Amino acid sequence: MSETMTPPAAPATAPPAPTAGAGRNWLKIAAAAALIVVLLLLPVLVGNGGVAYLKLAQYILIGAVGGIGLTLLVGQAGQLSLAHPFFLLVGAVGYAVLAGDPEESADLVGLGLPPLVAVIGAIVLCGLVGLAFAPVAGRLRGIYLGVASLSLVFLGLWLGQSLDMFSGGTSSGRNAPVFELFGFEFANSQPAPTIAGVAIQKQQRLWYLFLAFALMSYFLARGAVNSRIGRSWRAVRDNEAAATSMGVNVTRVKAGAFVISSAFAGLAGVMTALWLDLVKPDENEFTGTYSLTVAIAFLAVVIIGGLGSVPGAVVGATIVFGLQQFFLLGSQQFGWFADAQFGGFSAVVVSAFVYGAAIVLVILFEPGGIAAIGRRLTSRRSPDARSANGGDRTTPREDRT
Amino acid sequence: MIAARRAGRSALIAGALTSTLVLAACGSTADTAGGTAGAGGVITDVGVTDTTITLGIMGDTSGVFKNLGAGLNAGNQLWADDVNAAGGICGRQIEIEVVDHGYKADVAKTLYPQLEPNVLGMVQLLGSPVLAALEPNLIEDNMLAAPASWSSEVLDNPGIMMIGTTYDLEIINGLAYLQQQGLLADGDTIGHIYIDGEYGGNGLKGSQYYAQQHGLTINEAKVTSTDNDLTGIVTGMRGAGVKVIVLTTTPGQTASALAANQALGLNVPVLGNNPTFDPALLETPAAGALGNLYVSASNAPFSSPNPKAVEVTTRYKEAYPDSPLNAGVTTGYTEGVVWQNVLEAACEAGDLSRAGVKTALTTLTEVDSEGLVDVLDYSSPGAPPTRGVYIAQVDATAEGGLREVAPLFTSPEGESYVAPFQES
Predict the structure, then answer these.
(1) Where are the annotated coiled coils located (chain A) (predicted)?
(2) Is residue A60 part of a domain?
(3) In this predicted model, what pLDDT tens digit does every residue of B324-358 receive, in sequence order?
(4) What pLDDT is attached to residue B144?
(5) What was the ipTM of the complex prediction?
(6) Which residues pair with B294 in a beta bridge?
(7) Which residue of B has its CA nearest to A346?
(8) Which of A54, A335, B183, B258 is exposed most, by the fewest CB atoms within 10 A?
């Protein structure tokens, strides 16, 4: 594991200038624009009858936001963390407490803040909790840090069960407050506005909200990776002594990476609460919304996507978070795996195999993940980029666009 | 970097273009409320046509409860076959649409919107985490659902159609039975091992109530559903001198507690809720220690001599050979029977819409399932529809592993208990 976590130093060849070819840039811009248009029109494309697919797409975005946060930490800053579900839980509970209606129940703490303030508050809270863990993160590395961060998942399980005035308890949990922006509620309404004949109800509104969150996260992460912060992360990851001699404050950079990653996880937690309409701590540590399974799923997202690659994390989230539910929806709609009545190859089993196989294949044949495959495909069109790319393909090269 | 900025700018332009298009296509709509009149002058809305009534199952055939889930699904289907063979309800055939969520709330949340537009209601909704996650949807869609989860904490939602009695009442009646048999006396100490969560919390409410009535001291032990070794807890309970151990646990934990009970020489009677026992335990090394377990459940055990239960289980064995034998079959069949009563009442009232069936449920005061469960009364919202249980003891020679030791009964303590959302 540690081999892939701390890849060797950057290749000798300097990265090529960003203007690798005007034609390629235009192609990329056109593709990005087309993708965004498709995403914006998704509620229209699936229609009111395809809300299940919209729900699936929202779920992928939750994975993408969380995955982006983790890929920064694991891939860019070189710190293995399995604590992501804990920060998801803190974000979800933080949102419910900050935005919760104080009148709702005598047993629950709710501060009744505007939901937007609550979202920001929950993110900041997660960042602060991440900062509190930073002394540990600063002293440990590799698999040791992974194991230490794992303890946070157990801490979250225990806190969620015992602090039920915040979390609502494991029995019933508590309602996730409806998101609201300047008086516009992200809930069903009558009459509802329509776009091209498709009613924009709760799920469609949530989709646009999640899309905004995800795009914001994406561009913030790309910005961080391409700027001085990202360079200092990679310097610390590759060689702490060298980074120190370059004037990088290693302790502060490590702590900063943990804070930022936790904040991303906090946003994913808020999104989880809105997606489930529920904040409910898990009943055990292995299965559930904030469990070890989720920690592994996020790690799979960043490994399949390619360590350190922001677009890779999005693709990884699509595979890990999307595949199982897509199979399930398909099996329902088109009768796939219909003969799997009592056990056998059901949609759940098949998707587990696919995602397990994806990890094994990536680690065996393409340690740089899907990001490396993507880079190889795009560089085929520009010869100078290929020569620069011939060296070490496991190094995430996000300093280049 | 430059490219990223350019991409960002053109994305912005694209976004602006799109939003203009969108604005041009914008309008406003209001869904038409209320149903339409269908065949026979009956009002219908979702999941009901002139020839069919479609009900949904959100079950588990791939997750931790796949054995129970398969039994439940089969029971539901057997009921639908019976009804259809007898000419259907309201001149309509029953169709069942099955969804497998693998006991995962997130999967259920995605699958629900696909199922919801096709069905009138849920003949089976398995799993308390799933139920908790779907509760806002059920309320919003005005959906009636029979949960395969028996906590009295969910009865605040009028769309929940509880089939049988709840975990708290199972324990109250079970303790009363043990006291009647002379296995427990006023002032004794009992141990209660429970899983933190809806299931365990509700079971604990039962023993707390009974303890209060009879001056018992409870030695409580909270576990998570993945704790597999309960030996330490049972050792502690031996030290505390417990006369009875109550379990609201998973089948695996039941086996561990019973094995420890025997190995430590404690050998006290053990009382468990319906889900604590799985016939598969009889093939584990703990099989020899299971004899002390009394299971308190509102549905008849698989081997029950009740004629209706015999009929259902015989048909199950014919239709699904080599399938697991468990009480899920009769429970699933009973869910169907209750739905049948609801649909017939709604048909008589001329309203098979979702709102119509919900209203029809509250008019039912005597749903008779021929003894599969006690007679059910849905007229007081928030209260469990029945308080009666069967007591069964583990017996390796009986089909399904349980032998009925007491027929349906309700203890005086069970009658006087007030459930959390009951309006007294």
Answers:
(1) none
(2) yes
(3) 788 788 889 999 999 999 999 999 998 999 999 99
(4) 93
(5) 0.76
(6) B271, B393
(7) B62
(8) A335
Domain B167-297+410-416 sits in CATH at 3.40.50.2300
Which pLDDT score, from 0 to 100, does residue B22 have? 42
B41-165+304-385 and B167-297+410-416 in the same fold: yes
Distance CA A214, CA A61 (A): 6
Domains: count for chain A: 1
- Which of B:358-387 have CB within 8 Å of A? none
Tell me, yes or no, whether A147 lies in a domain.
Answer: yes
Out of A51, A190, A287, name the one closest to residue B113 (CB).
A51
In angstroms, what separates the C-alpha of B17 from chain A's closest C-alpha?
9
* Residue carrying structure tokens 């963390």: A81
How many percent of chain B have pLDDT more than 90? Answer: 43
- Asked if the Cβ–Cβ distance from A28 to B3 is below 8 Å, we say yes
Give B369-388 pLDDT, tens digit per residue: 888 888 899 988 889 999 99
Question: B18 vs chain A: nearest CA distance in angstroms?
Answer: 7
- Contact residues, B window 102-121, toward A, CB-based 8 Å cutoff: 102-107, 109-115, 117
Verify whether the Cβ–Cβ distance A401 to B4 is below 8 Å: yes
> Could you tell me the pLDDT band of residue B40, with boundaries at 50, 70 and 90?
low
Rounded-to-integer distance, Cα A150 and Cα B386, Å? 45
- Interface touch A36/B8, C-beta < 8 Å: no
CB contact B181 to A (< 8 Å): no
| Measured distance CA(B204)–CA(B250) in Å, rounded | 15
Whether residue B25 lies within 8 A of chain A, CB to CB, comes out as yes
Here the CATH number for the domain that contains residue A149 is 1.10.3470
Q: Please, what CATH class does the domain formed by B41-165+304-385 belong to?
A: alpha beta
Residue B265, Cβ density class (10 Å: 0-12 exposed, 13-18 middle, ≥19 buried): exposed
pLDDT at A57: 93
Q: Do A332 and B115 touch (CB under 8 A)?
A: yes
What confidence tens digit (pLDDT) does each residue in A202-239 have?
A: 888 999 999 999 999 999 999 999 999 999 999 999 99
B56, B119 Cβ separation under 8 angstroms: yes
B148 closest CA partner among B63, B90, B85, B222: B63
CA distance to partner chain A, nearest, from residue B405 (Å): 31
pLDDT of A345 reads 66
Domain-wise residue ranges, chain B? 41-165+304-385, 167-297+410-416
Domain extent at residue A165: 50-389
Distance between CA B374 and CA B381 in Å, rounded?
18
User: In chain A, which residues have pLDDT < 50?
Assistant: 1-20, 384-401
B60 touches chain A (CB under 8 A): no
Which tokens in the block code for residue A192? 């509802």
